[in-house]
Prior knowledge:
Blueprint: H1 2-9, H2 15-21, H3 29-34, E1 37-42, E2 45-53, E3 79-86, H4 95-109, E4 114-120, H5 124-129, E5 133-140, E6 143-151
Parallel strand pairs: 3-4
Antiparallel strand pairs: 1-2, 2-3, 4-6, 5-6
Amino acid sequence: MRLAIDRLQSAFLTPGQVKASHGFMGLDSRLIADGTYFVIEAQGRIAGCGGWSRGATAYGGDHSAGRDDRLLDPAMEAAKVRAMYTHPDHVRKGVGTLILSLCEAAARAEGFAALELSATMAGVPLYRSFGFVDVRAFEDSGVPLILMRKPISDL
């Protein structure tokens, strides 16, 4: 995760913004406990990871402030795609798309009609190619992010 943040964000952020990213990005172990986190391996090594949440916390790791454990209402709220990281050696090899596909299928199976995520600038092209649309830009600790959404309902 640290390597992905450092290498992949450096083309979009200043060194200070990359450093600030470490203050709120990272793994949320609740996703692992919930069984909603995926790890993709290539040749016995981690190529990428990411997951989704039934909870209201939009992004951030175990160390992040402002976490919200309230369960989302699948009929009214979007599941949250969280903690997406691709090892720099595996970018543009389908790792992120595979993780997003797994998240979408699992959230749909639990009755969610949409997905939301807080995209880093490095992730925006992947998310747009997967059908996410921009909702609004915002910042955390001076780091630019975009709230994005994708409908996933079969209706």
